[in-house]
Every structure is written in structure tokens, then in C-alpha cells.
Amino acid sequence: MSFFQWLREGVRQAVVLGLADAVDDVGTRTNSEELGPALAQSLRDRLAVGKEPRVIEQGVGASRRRLGRSLDATREGFRKAV
Fold it and tell me: Largest CB tally within 10 Å, which of 3, 21, 42, 79?
């Protein structure tokens, strides 16, 4: 099996399983019932987002960790080397 066949088969399985999950979640409908409202409610339930944004705050006394060296530290290192 080539890479592209493997990838195609994986995508096909994901789509089929997703469709099966959707049918389980929404349920089957008769011809007179509309699918739209049930599907919309299902998507709202799955994608529900909290009303208040979540902000990660640092604790009291915690300082922000620097990643890498600042421009001043780089210049000092260069001056010491010269």
C-alpha cells in the first residue's frame, strides 16, 4: 500500500466514522421532519464556548520568564569578547 492509498483510506474511514457519530447524535428523521434544527442544536452543544474569556494570569510575585537573551545582554557579551 502506497502512502497516498494509506492516506486516502484513513480519510475515508474518518469521514465514515464522523457520519456515523453525526447520525447517532442527531438521530434519523422521517421525510416530514427537518434535519436543520436538530443538526444546528447538536453543533451548538458540541461547540459551546464559555461566555467569559479565559485569561491565564500569573501568580503574585511570579516574574515573566525570558526566552533567550535580550539585546542589551547580547551587546554586553559582544563588548566583553572584543
Answer: 42
Find the distance separating the first CA and the last CA of the chain, reported in whole Å. 60
Q: Are 42 and 26 in contact (CB under 8 A)?
A: yes
pLDDT of 63 reads 65
Residue 2 cell numbers, joined = 502506497
Is the pTM higher than 0.90?
Answer: no
Residue that has been written with the C-alpha cell 485569561 in this structure = 55
As a whole number of angstroms, the distance between CA 16 and CA 51 comes to 33
State residue 48 phi and psi, 5-degree precision.
-60, 130
The candidate with the shortest Cα–Cα distance to 25, out of 2, 4, 41, 49, is 41
- Under-70 pLDDT residues of the chain: 29, 48-66, 82
